[in-house]
Amino acid sequence: QVQLVESGGGLVQAGGSLRLSCACSGGTFSVYHMGWFRRAPGKERELVAAITWTDGKPYYVDSVKGRFTISRDDDKQAVYLQMNNLKPEDTAVYYCNRLTIPFDWGQGTQVTVSS
Hints:
Helix content is 0%, strand content 50%. It is an all-beta fold.
């Protein structure tokens, strides 16, 4: 059974940075297209960044382009999200998961950006 554990969240001021990590265990991580998702208070969970397993090509939702960078380390079975120039609207619980058929969701990591 695949387990996903997110970490790295916290409280930062607007303009600050955080690096989120997601550790994956129990599966064949190297063949998963992976994504970072977030759920803001009162909103649906949304995909913010993704990375393919084939060529590591990234995808970003428009609202984070130029500020967030997704990366992966297949040897460590981990995916990362570097978040720079954070804005209050980035406040949410962040999750990682496989893009195609999601695994059970982890607990996520809370990111709070103060203005």
